[in-house]
Amino acid sequence: MDLLKTFVAIIPIVWLILSLGVFHIRGDLACMIGFVGTIILSMIGFGFSFVHSITAGLEGVMMAFWPIIYVIVSAVFIYNISKESGGMDTIMSMLTSLTKDMRILVLLLAWGLGGFLEAVAGFGTAVAIPASILVMLGMEPIKAAIVCLIANTSPTAFGAVGLPVTTLAKVTGLDVIQVSYFVSIQLFALIMLIPFVLVYITDGRGMKAFKGGGVLPATLLAGLTFAVPQIFITKYMGPELPSIVGSLVCLLTLVIITKIQKNDVKSDDKEENSTSQKVKAWLPFIFVFFLIIFSSSLFPSINNALASVKTSLHIYNGPNAKPLDIDWLSSPGTLIFLASFLGGAIQGLSFGKMIAILWDTIKQLGKTIITVCSIVGLSKVMGYSGMIDTIAVTLVALTGPFYPVISPIIGVLGTFITGSDTSSNVLFGDLQVQAANTLKINPYWLAAANMAGATAGKMISPQSIAIATGATGLDGEEGVILKKALFYCLLYTVILCLVVVGIGKMMNYL
Fold first, then answer.
1. Where are the transmembrane segments (predicted)?
2. CA 341/CA 358 separation, integer angstroms
3. Contacts (Cβ under 8 Å, ≥6 apart) of 224
4. At what angle do helices 141-151 and 176-203 cross, to 10 degrees?
């Protein structure tokens, strides 16, 4: 264990924590500085050559663009298409016409709709949209911000059409389906618990929150119908569809149970949209659903044909170099773009209008693109130069067999630093695998623990809180929101650590 090298290796991580969490430097600027600083540190502290450090960074930037940024742009694009066509308004109207019981509305909007938005778009939409609607419907702004931040945790693992997990598999070299399955196992209990927490906070009367109006069965089913489909889909299909299917099954179940209950607080409002309008509103997302299914491993002939259209790039030219594969047709980004253009055309948008929306989407994500490029470039330099390996060896030496206990906490830290589950996986995914290999335990289980932990960090990340305060008109109240969210984040993390160690021991993964 080389403590001097360890000190040098953790400087980029400490910089990200301080710059984003303490000094509140802009994310894109902080990450760019971190990227450049990491290149310099790799040469000074680890003997990495200039050429190797630059090519490692360039490989990271290329990986950031494909598939990460490609999927981000496509996911936000499909949301913007739906918003411009009026489809998103129709979807919201369908949900808010069902009831005036705020407890049920929170389950529908923060949990169900929020989970769906996270699944297909992510990157703030799942907090901003439900939170603003809840405030519009009369909920206290701080309460709306908190419930939406808590709701936007476990669904983020498979958000943006599975991008965090597919990225984790890519940076670690692990099988994506196995990683997905382990993530869904680790998050199962938390998915079941979160709806109860949301209702508890919304009502504010303690356990009386679950009395009357069919709220208790609705809360139980909100978790069950989200969690169970995820287990099966991750086991047999991978990370693209779990949150999409889970959120849709959850929404459908809540709609049915709300209509069956016909409780006293049911809304008298009539839903004015015709059946054809409702179908049109959902069309882009229906197309995403079926395109992903038919291109998945369930249909091997289609899957293999699409996967065969790829380009292998050799960018990094140093030790342990791996080619970077660009999957042109099988990328979720390609499928989402196709669904967006098909759905948008049927909803009445011209091709020119959709291209304009796409350009606006790219401009909207400018800072995000810089941030992602910088963080992935930084992580690649850290990985190839041996910085991550040094940190892993030191952590294992210091914690020994207790390392799995802190494994999810590292994921929490990553998302708190970067505001992104995907970036947390890029930053620490390889560290978890190397630690697992050193301890001779299952690397899939610890990689999944990083992903699961990253979902907890989402509720306290400065970026998420900024989105929540902006959506609820609470600008300047970020500290209040962070203080309230921190308790639930700690509770979530403790439960997750117990699950990771408990089930890991039971299944002989640790």
1. 6-25, 32-54, 60-79, 91-113, 144-169, 181-201, 213-232, 244-260, 281-302, 335-359, 390-417, 485-504
2. 10
3. 192
4. 160
Instruction: State both tokens at 214.
Output: 């069919």
Distance CA 445, CA 495 (A): 16
How far is Cα 451 from Cα 176, in angstroms, rounded to an integer?
A: 12
Which tens digit of pLDDT belongs to each residue from 68-97?
A: 888 888 888 988 999 999 998 898 888 778
CB within 8 Å of 436: residues ≥ 6 apart: 442, 443, 445, 446, 447
Is the alpha carbon torsion for 20, 25, 27, 30 positive or negative?
negative
Q: Report yes or no: 87 and 277 within 8 Å, Cβ to Cβ.
A: no
Would strands 310-313 and 324-327 be described as parallel, antiparallel, or unpaired? Answer: antiparallel
Residue 145, helix vs strand vs coil: helix
Peptide bond into 408 cis (omega under 30): no
Angle CA(42)–CA(48)–CA(49) in degrees, nearest 5? 125
Mean pLDDT across the stretch 284-307?
85
Torsion of CA 109, 112, 117, 122, to 10 degrees: 100
HSE at residue 181, side-chain half, CA atoms within 13 A, is 10
In b/e form, how buried is each residue of 323-347, taking b as 16+ CB within 10 angstroms? ebebbeebbbbbbbbebbbbbbbeb
Q: Is the pLDDT of residue 108 over 90?
A: yes
> Taking the CB of residue 136, how many other CB atoms lie within 10 A of it?
11
Predicted confidence (pLDDT) at residue 270 exceeds the cutoff of 70: no
Q: Are 418 and 404 in contact (CB under 8 A)?
A: no
Q: What is the pLDDT of residues 438-447, one digit of tens each?
A: 899 999 999 9
Q: What is the DSSP string of 57-99?
A: HHHHHHHIIIIIIHHHHHHHHHHHHHHHHTHHHHHHHHHHTS-
What tokens does 15 get? 């910089």
Backbone region of residue 261 per phi and psi (left: phi > 0; alpha: psi in -120 to 50; beta: other values): alpha
- Does the pLDDT at position 263 exceed 70? no
| Residue 419 Cα to chain centre, angstroms | 10
Q: Which residue in this structure is represented by tokens 């430097």?
A: 25
